[in-house]
């Protein structure tokens, strides 16, 4: 793996390369992090190492990383800001670094308190941006419209129906193996932090997945990936996002209409239909109720929009 500056594992000193390999193993085997999470963490670390290489004038070794001071880390944050990196992206990158440095300490390689002293960037309070119910259904109706291969069209429909019908994160859906697909009225999902939750499954979701599996030429079975690409490998998020972008452009939907927006739509439409926050929290796998409460703001906004657009007094 390389960072945008071209830094790769082959250019790193042995001690740092071995530490990164052990860290990846620890993330996968002990922390049970998904492949998606592990790859993102490593990408963040390599981007940081690319910055440090330019900052110090040479590729760092492990001792160099342990000697970095708060000023060095603040320079890195300033560079990200100058490069126009989103605060949410920087917050995740900082979390990745802290995780790596904690591993170095746990594995007896040394510690650096400076990285723990750096404050997280203040993130804007964002409101989820769901699709309107009619738009969500239009996405499903057109999920495979751009696909020449019928089985790929069925795959897109199955994936988008699963995201909207069960409120899954895109990583949770793509991490599923064939033997984990729903066969009854519920399924067990392993989410963030390796936490499991029970999610109800509508017949339309189950039927869409089975229709795709029957059509798939790679016949996913057992521990093989459920959702695969054109060559039979596990489908990656970038491809799912690209397929959603095609549908979005066809329907003239905003840029916020992403696969993750289907999860937002699931929660918002449940809430609008009378679902209670605690239940929706469990269905989404949120650790904190405050995260789920963001959807109440969306529901209120929609309520006010309807009121302002239809009430005679509001239109005066």
Summary tags:
DNA polymerase, domain 1; mainly alpha; hpI Integrase, Chain A; globular
List the helices and strands and how they pair.
Elements: H1 14-29, H2 35-56, H3 62-67, H4 70-82, H5 87-106, H6 114-117, H7 133-141, H8 150-166, H9 170-174, E1 186-190, E2 196-200, H10 203-215, H11 237-251, H12 259-272, H13 277-284, H14 289-292, H15 294-310
Antiparallel strand pairs: 1-2
Helix pairs in contact: 2-5, 7-8, 8-10, 8-12, 12-15
Structure description:
The chain is mostly helical. It folds into two domains: 9-117, Tyrosine recombinase, N-terminal domain (DNA polymerase, domain 1), CATH 1.10.150; 133-310, Intergrase catalytic core (hpI Integrase, Chain A, Orthogonal Bundle), CATH 1.10.443.10. 58% of the residues lie in helices and 3% in strands. It has helices at 14-29, 35-56, 62-67, 70-82, 87-106, 114-117, 133-141, 150-166, 170-174, 203-215, 237-251, 259-272, 277-284, 289-292, 294-310; strands spanning 186-190, 196-200. Strands 1-2 form a two-stranded antiparallel ribbon. A hairpin with a 5-residue loop joins strand 1 (186-190) and strand 2 (196-200). Helix 8 (150-166) packs antiparallel against helix 10 and helix 12 (259-272) crosses helix 15. The radius of gyration is 22 Å and the shape is globular. The protein starts with 13 loop residues before the first helix and ends in a 6-residue tail after the last helix. The model has no long low-confidence stretch (mean pLDDT 85).
């Amino acid at each position: 793996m390389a960072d945008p500056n071209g830094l790769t594992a082959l250019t790193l000193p042995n001690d740092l390369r071995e530490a990164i390999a052990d860290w990846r193993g620890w993330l996968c085997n002990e922390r049970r992090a998904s492949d998606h999470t592990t790859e993102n963490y490593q990408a963040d670390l390599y981007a940081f190492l690319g910055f440090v290489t330019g900052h110090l004038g040479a590729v760092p070794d492990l001792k160099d990383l342990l000697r970095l001071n708060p000023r060095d880390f603040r320079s890195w944050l300033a560079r990200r800001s100058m490069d126009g990196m989103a605060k949410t992206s920087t917050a995740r990158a900082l979390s990745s670094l802290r995780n790596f440095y904690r591993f170095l300490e746990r594995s007896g390689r040394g510690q650096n308190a400076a990285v723990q002293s750096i404050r997280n960037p203040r993130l804007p309070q964002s409101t989820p941006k769901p699709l309107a119910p009619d738009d969500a259904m239009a996405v499903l109706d057109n999920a495979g419209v751009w696909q020449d291969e019928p089985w790929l069209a069925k795959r897109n429909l199955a994936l988008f129906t699963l995201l909207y019908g069960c409120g899954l994160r895109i990583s949770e859906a793509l991490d599923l193996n064939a033997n984990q697909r729903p066969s009854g009225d519920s399924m067990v999902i392993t989410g963030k932090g390796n936490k499991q939750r029970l999610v109800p499954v509508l017949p339309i979701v189950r039927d869409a997945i089975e229709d795709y599996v029957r059509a798939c030429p790679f016949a996913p079975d057992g521990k093989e990936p459920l959702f695969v690409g054109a060559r039979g490998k596990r489908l990656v998020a970038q491809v799912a996002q690209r397929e959603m972008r095609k549908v979005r452009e066809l329907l003239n939907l905003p840029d916020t209409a992403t696969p993750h927006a289907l999860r937002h739509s699931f929660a918002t439409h449940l809430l609008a239909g009378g679902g209670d926050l605690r239940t929706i929290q469990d269905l989404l796998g949120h650790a904190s109720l405050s995260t789920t409460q963001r959807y109440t703001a969306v529901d209120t906004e929609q309520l006010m929009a309807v009121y302002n657009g239809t009430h005679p007094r509001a239109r005066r």
